[in-house]
Structures are given as structure tokens and as C-alpha cells.
Amino acid sequence: MTQPIQVAVIGAGISGLSCAHRLRQLGVSVIVLESQERGGGLVGTIERNGFRFETGPQSFLCTKPVLELIRALNIEGDLLLANPRAPRYIYKNKRLHAVPMSPPAILTSSLLSFSSRYRIIAERFRHTRPPTPEESVADFVRRKFGNEILEYLVAPFVSGVYAGDPEFLSLKSAFPTLDEWERDHGSIIRGAMNSRKTSPGPRPALCSFREGMKTLMETLTRNLDSAFVPGVRADSIERSASGGGFTIRITQSGQREEMKVQSVILATPAYISGHIVDALSPNLAKSLLGIPYAPVAVVAHGYKRLQVANSLVGFGVLIPRKEALRTLGTVWNSSLFPGSAPSDSVLVTSFVGGATDPEIVHEEPDEISSIVEEETSRILEISGAPVAKQVTRYTKGLPQYNLGHAHILENINEELANSPGVFLTGNYWIGPALGNCVEAGKQAAESAQAYLTAQKSATAAQSTIPAAS
């Protein structure tokens, strides 16, 4: 007899797949519904003519949750580690400037003026308190360090991580550790130093896989076997009229069907999850639909090594908006992970769009490619056209942790309390990085398992109550 499905996970990005993996570890029967024909969401790898194009994240930090997952999947031997000392650059005044990563480097950096360098060093000896109202990243940096550091260090970093605008991004939601350090220590540098003392050890390594980022996603879907069901769109969920649990209305091969499960975990983007839960909880739907997303285009170019005058020794370059270019930043893939390009070639991947330039993503791929090609050719001293290229557009790429995001999540949690058995996970939950998504997926799985256990205990207790005479 087939075991009844206990949990349906809707969405097979990294959050949904890691969630389903954890459910299986906990002995919970699960099915994963994915509207596309493959799992992975934004994470994907395309091989063409010896180039390995990543269609979303180019790498990931091998944090503890990620490493635990990789070891459980037995793919640790496929890991590639980038050089932890690989320099990062900022493009300023038509030059590449190394990002200072230590106090001595800050003192001698050509990126910042003397007054800005002094403000960084002196911050350790000052004591400040954050304002009571929620503060944007831009307001925080201006208050602590001044406008130059915002424009030439923080804003480019925010564009690279969140594709966001620091004027609207919430410090508490996007960088909660910085907010905590100032509240607890009056200084983020003292907070960082104290954190290193209490959590010693090496920082997580920057990683990928020998065959690209797809390795993790394909291994997760393969291990799910028949429990992974692609090409199925979840349209709505409702609480079942009888017998408890939920009814999921789905569309598969043009046919509408129903599926009954005990619990549901939505691992789709917030703007999709909002529509799915509308019939179940209009207020939950409203909160989810209130999370904005920024569009992003990922533009990869392959060149012959001889075409590029820059040595490309390092991680890549971030480009401040002050430089009046449309490229947000460029990762030097073949320098980080040898094997991503033929031996006589190089591969670089750029990002455009984001909250500060959303219109560009709606241009045709060839036009986007041309814009990036012209700008990166200037920055990296490249001659001639690329020998290979790949453009991937996401009209709703990354969730924005803007001012009010924490309040939205509070409202979501309140509504979830009124919908027991429904759980959420995704890159809008505790952070957009791959490690955050793995952790959020694991948390959702454990919450669902606890709910099922409680339901089973309640049913067992109810069955032992004697009937009234």
C-alpha cells in the first residue's frame, strides 16, 4: 500500500528542494510540484562550446547548512574552492581600485579620500546609538561613515548582493548583524571584533562545482526520484472540507486536477505564493504580494585570452552608480574557477538592472549584451567581439528587503498562525544567498514535521476518549 503524501512542497528552487530533502531525512513523505520542466529556479548552468555559463548565482559561500547538505548528498568531492585571497575591485574614475580588506589596506587605499579612511579606522573608538525608527542602509552609512563610503563601497555591494537601492533597503532586514553590533557595542567594528572572538575559525569558502552550480540542483532532484513532479502548476490551496488537510488545485498538461495532502509548504516567489493562498487567506496573500522584486539580467561573455589586456586576477569588479555605467558588476568566472572556459579563453559574467535601472531588463537580449560588452571592454581593456555569450533575463529577479520588510514578515507570521499546516520558505525569508535559502528550507521542513507530529498526537489522544454514554 502506498504511503499517503504528508507534505506537498510547491516550487523546486533551492529553498524547495532543500526543504524536501530535509523532510525525507525526517521520515516525512513528500511530493515536490514544479511548474517548469526542471528544478533549480534561478540556479542553472548551460554548457556551450567549452564555456560554462551560470544563469543565476555564480558561486556560493559554503556555510555550515550548505556544507551539511552537500555532504548528505555525497557531492563534496565535486566542490571547487575559490582563492580566499582573490582581490575585489571597484571601478572609479576609469581605474580599478582594490577593495581594502584590512586596516593597513584601508590606510593606504587609493579608493577613498583620507577623511573617509580616517572615519573607518576611528569608528572603533566612537560610540553611537541607532535611531528608533527603521533606518535605510544609505542613512546608516551616511550617519556612520559619510557619503563617499556609501557611494563607492556600500552601494556597489548592495547592488551586487540584492540588486537593490540603499536608499530604500532596510538595514535591519538586509544586514541585521550590523544593526545588532551597533545596538550591542556602539560600534560595528567592535561588534565585528567581538564576533570573531566568540566564533573563531576560518570564514566560509567561496565555492562552486566542477560541472557548475547545476550539480547541487540536479543531485537534489535526482534523489527525490518520482517525488519530484515537473510541469505541474499549483493554482490554489484550500482547507479540505472533511478529514482535515488541504486540497491543492493543479494544472498538468492542460488538465485541471486536485490533490489532497496533510500539509503544504510554499517555496515559490512571494508574488506567486500570494496568488496560490488567496482563497485560503486573503490577508496572507496581500502581505506576500506586498514584497517587491527587482529585475536582473545575467550577461556572460567569453573571449580569447589574447583579447583581454587585464590580467583578471581576482574575484571581479563592482561599478558604482556614480560612474554612469549600466553594468552593476562583473564576476571573473574563469579566474575563480578554472574549467569554466577553454584553456585559451576567459569567461566574465556581468549583471545589469536591479532597483536602480529596472528598464534595461526589458530590452532585447542582443541589445543588453551590446551595452554590457561595450562597458566591460572599456573597463577590462578588451578588443574585439566575444566568441560566446549568454543572456538570461529575470523580470522579477530578487526580493527587495526594503523599509517595512520586517513588518511584512510579522504580518505573514500572524496570518500563518491562523492557517496551521501551511508553511512558507524562499529567498525573501531570511536572505537571498544560497546558504540562507538552504537554512530557510530546512526550518520550514522541521516546522512541518513538528506540526504533523502534533496532529498525530492530538488524533491519538482524541481516539482514547470514551464515547459519551
Write the layout of secondary structure elements.
Blueprint: E1 7-10, H1 14-25, E2 30-34, E3 45-48, E4 51-54, E5 60-61, H2 64-72, E6 79-81, E7 88-92, E8 95-98, H3 103-108, H4 114-122, H5 137-144, H6 147-162, H7 171-174, H8 176-185, H9 188-198, E9 206-209, H10 214-224, E10 228-230, E11 232-239, E12 246-252, E13 255-261, E14 263-266, H11 270-276, H12 282-289, E15 293-304, E16 316-318, E17 327-331, H13 333-336, E18 345-353, H14 365-380, E19 388-399, H15 405-417, E20 422-424, H16 434-463
Helix pairs in contact: 1-10, 1-16, 2-16, 5-6, 8-9, 11-12, 12-15
- Based on DSSP secondary structure assignment, what is the total number of beta strands? 20
CATH structural fold name of the largest domain: FAD/NAD(P)-binding domain
Helical proportion? 25-40%
Q: What's the CATH architecture name of the largest domain?
A: 3-Layer(bba) Sandwich
Sheet with the most strands, sense and barrel status: 7 strands, mixed
Based on secondary structure, the structural category is: alpha/beta
How many domains, in number, for the residues? 3
| End-to-end CA span | 36 Å
pLDDT < 50 runs, ≥5 residues: none
What Rg do the Cα atoms give? Answer: 24 Å
* Largest sheet, spatial ordering of strands: 8-7-16-17-18-15-19
Count the helices. How many? 16
CATH superfamily of the largest domain: FAD/NAD(P)-binding domain
Percent strand: 15-25%
CATH class annotation of the largest domain: Alpha Beta
Rounded average pLDDT = 94
The rough form would be described as globular
Oligomeric status = single chain
